[in-house]
Amino acid sequence: MKRVHSFEFNDQPWLPAAVRNAMTDYLEFAERLCKLYEPVIPILAGALRETGCRRVVDLCSGAGGPWLEVLPRLRALGLDIDVTLTDKFPNPALLDRLPDPLREHIAYHAESVDARDVPESLDGLRTVWTALHHFEPDDVRAILQNAVDRNAPFAAFEFTRPDWRYFLTMILAPLVVLLTTPFIRPFRWSRVHVTYTVPVLPFIVLWDGMVSCLRTYTPGELEAMTASLHGEGYAWRSGEALAKGIPSPVLYLIGIPRQEPDPKGTS
Question: Which long-range contacts (CB under 8 A, 24 or more apart) does 188-195 make?
């Protein structure tokens, strides 16, 4: 199926913060609950070892993505890393849900960060979880080119795709939102309000989930983008990792500088 870049509510700057935060909270909860990114942990661990990076700069973080699940797993593998979360629409309040063992290893950059032009002060291996599909091809190339220009290792992961099995899964999303909202922590009355009183959240999750499937890039499309980037000394690889419990593999894109990254990102 050809990629379709349609409208998503979560991309709109006018979307009320209460709705946006409730949606990203739900997505983070669902990703952790289902362990959607379990199969790519070894791939990310390999990229960290290959580059020697001890700092991760997470782009388009939303409510933190899968880091509450992924970071303990990486540290258990002997990777002593810290994570800085960033987003175009920052949500530092998500730090309230961090368990004590992670508080010293996860920070939130409070200022808005454009993934196409990351501040030089934010050095380290860049990650993008479930967000690359939000960008049109020219913007994806800009994100990748900025990583190349800054000599920053890069890793992106997506679990959606334009596949009828995913569309069937997304049809159940509103029911899952209604059933799980009381269990998402920290508890927020604003989340309850947009889920039950004025039930916009179940509809938005359904719509954006369907559109995300239509927007997701294939490994071949990503490889074509990396081939068009300017600059040498960068090695890109993409593929799919089999995931237990979801209908199709998780897509990944890894970019590794052939020369060592800035030492500030490895300390």
Answer: 188/21, 188/22, 188/25, 190/18, 190/21, 190/22, 191/18, 191/21, 191/22, 191/25, 193/18, 194/18, 194/19, 194/22, 195/22
Tell me if 94 is assigned to some domain: yes
Question: Does 32 fall in a domain?
Answer: yes
| CB contact at 8 A, 197 and 253 | no
Strand order of the β-sheet with 55-59 is 106-108, 82-85, 55-59, 125-129, 154-158, 250-257, 234-241
Residue range(s) defining the domain that contains residue 27: 9-266
Which residues of 35-89 form beta strands (DSSP E)? Answer: 55-59, 82-85
pLDDT in tens, 24-53: 888 888 877 777 888 899 999 999 999 999
Domain holding 177: CATH number? Answer: 3.40.50.150
Q: What is the pTM of this model?
A: 0.85
Do 129 and 157 contact (CB within 8 A), yes or no? yes
Provide the CA 7 distance to its chain's centre, in angstroms: 19
CA 28 from chain centre, in angstroms, equals 9
Tokens of residue 156, six digits: 């992106």
In the chain, how many domains are there?
1
Instruction: Please check whether residue 4 lies inside any domain of the structure.
Output: no
Q: What is the pLDDT of residues 224-262, one digit of tens each?
A: 999 999 887 889 999 988 866 666 688 999 999 976 655
Whether 1 is in a domain gets the answer: no
Identify any residues that bridge with 256 across adjacent strands, giving them in sequence order: 235
Tell me the β-bridge partners of 241: 250
